[in-house]
Amino acid sequence: MEIRTLIREMSIANPLWGAPRIHGELLKLGIDVSQTTVAKYMSRPRRPPSQGWKTFLRNHADGIVAMDLFVVPTILFKLLYGLVVMSHDRRKILHLSTTAHPTAAWIARQLNEAVGWDRAPRSIIRDRDGAYGEVFKRRLRAMGIRDRSIAPQSPWQNGTCERLIGSIRRDCLDHVVIFGERHLRHVLQSYAHYHNQVRTHLSLGKDAPVSRAVRSAGRILPIPLLGGLHHHYVRI
Could you give the number of structural domains in the chain? Predict the structure, then answer.
């Protein structure tokens, strides 16, 4: 019974291993069973032993940038579009801008502003919005970035960026009346500073994307941000 359990545990822990590989490991452990017996008691995976999407994101987070568009109505019910570009490893906002007409050329220019002065990421995750036209795809190829568009109707595959947009709405836009494109751009830039420099994140061990030093001496002073919606607490 112990050998059966061991075979099953080894096959679950090493989904890329077949019966010959597990049989070889057992022989090295001094367990003399036939390869047929190994194949009989191996766990049968329900899905192919390939790297899943979540595993890909976790293993390559330091080289992945995600981007997405979102809609913001103004006080006159005009629709503006925000574009966020973020890094996966530290959840840092690389670029946050707005436009009334999100063309492929405009999106390509925003991407260049987001990563143009730094080492280009290996991959970029985006949805299949028609705004990402041929001009944008050519820019990706020129920068040597792999285009990893998500599957149709699968926003969860770009979940980190979707959660960020949700935070932008809950923390800021749901509490502000937007007057126009210039006003929205100012609000988004202020939020990007708050998100990167101040806001703590559970996924970062309750640190900010730009790591904040711990200070334990001095008087605590609250600094209002985003019109008083949030505060930055510092010691002086």
Answer: 2
Asked whether residue 233 is assigned to any structural domain, the reply reads no
The answer as to whether 227 is a domain residue is no
Q: Are 77 and 194 in contact (CB under 8 A)?
A: no
**What is the reported pTM?**
0.74
Q: State the residue range of the domain holding 20.
A: 2-50
- Give the model's pLDDT for residue 49: 52
Percent of the chain with pLDDT over 70: 92
How far is Cα 32 from Cα 26, in angstroms, rounded to an integer?
Answer: 7
Residues 82, 197 within the same domain: yes
Residue 17, CB-side half-sphere exposure with 13 Å CA sphere: 21
| 154-181 tens-digit pLDDT | 888 898 999 999 999 999 999 999 999 9
Average pLDDT of the chain? 88
Q: Are 11 and 30 in contact (CB under 8 A)?
A: no
- 98: nearest Cα among 76, 80, 86: 80
Give the angle subtended at the CA of 52 by the CAs of 13 and 41, to the nearest 5°: 30
